[in-house]
Here is the input.
Amino acid sequence: MSVITISRQFGAGGRTLGEMVAKKLRYEFYDNEVIQMVSIKAKVSAESVDALEKETGGTFKKAIADIVPKSLKDMILSRKQDTIDEEIYVDVLRKIIVEIADDGNAVIIGRGSQYVLKDHDNVFHVLIRAENADRVKFFEEKYDLTYDQAVRAVGQDDRRRANLYRKLGETDYDQPDRYHLVLNTSKLDFETASELICELVKP
Amino acid sequence: MNVITISRQFGAGGLTLGRMVSKTLDYNFFDNEIIQMVAKKARVSTHWVESMEKEAGGKFQRFISQLVPKGLIDRILDDQRGYIDEEIYVDLLHDIIRKIADEGNAVILGRGSQYILKDYKDAKHVLLVADKEYRIRFMEEKYDLFTKHAINSVNLEDKRRINLYRKFGKEDYDSPAHYHLVLNMSKVDIQRACKLICLLIKPS
Here is the structure.
């Protein structure tokens, strides 16, 4: 019943790696957007954070199944709206992340999950980082953005990330001592990086 | 021909882990031997080189001129300058570490090897961090020290490390940017850490 949190600099390949790891380990995969949408939905349907606590794993999973994801490209290019939502839903996010962790066998991308779950047993925290130039290039290629769009997206997301962590009262999110493992995808290929993450949870 | 450099905060278990990794991969392990090689090449005593590493930047020359009569240094060293200064030391270190890397199949502990080999294609760079409590406890248990001595040694070595890197003109040695992998030894046990490092070389 292990959980892996993957924190990352935007464009370092955290999502791609997270998907690879989840597939290899047959874990559930929860990325930013999924958690975000669930939290919005939970807020809207339950009208209060308290009600969410009463929801069981079962309803939670059903909630996810109902969601139709927007294209990733649209998501990335419309970051601004997400930022406003984050402010409202930080409390809900915390509760949802704890719920996911209690379910176990999950890979969680971002959302400050390394802080929310920092003292949980069997939770492993990984940070994925890369050089700025590589992050821009990654976004150009992976999401078919122009160079300028990619530069803007990386810059915006660095600010968004700093903002989210500020709300959680944390500033040391790029410090290695927060994590079990820090992987540098400017130096490591994804296959090796995903092997390393999987090795963390092997018995 | 692969080479692994292991940089570490003092007391994070670098020596123990470096030995484990080199044994697992059947690689040669270089730690203080490098100091001896430098000493031999510079024809000074190992003690000199060690003292020299311990001394901070500009202090070194003062230290040498105070302790050793110049005539003696001239007899021992064939260098025109007549003494082993920081530049010569760093040059020798570069030479020797590159030679080790060219031979391949090696684990190198510390000595700024992550900077010297930063552009080596087959070099994998690992950093070991651990919180201070862990490092002090590690020194207590591993080397059977009193708590007071363990705390002192950790503090002293932290300073020594800063000084050595200053000679390389580096201050960002704990930044993940220089490394393939950063392992937090307060959170990952040493056997698993060994496996993780070996995976860098032999992805299964």
Observations:
- The domain at 3-201 of chain B is CATH 3.40.50.300 (Rossmann fold).
- The first strand of chain B starts at residue 3 and ends at 8.
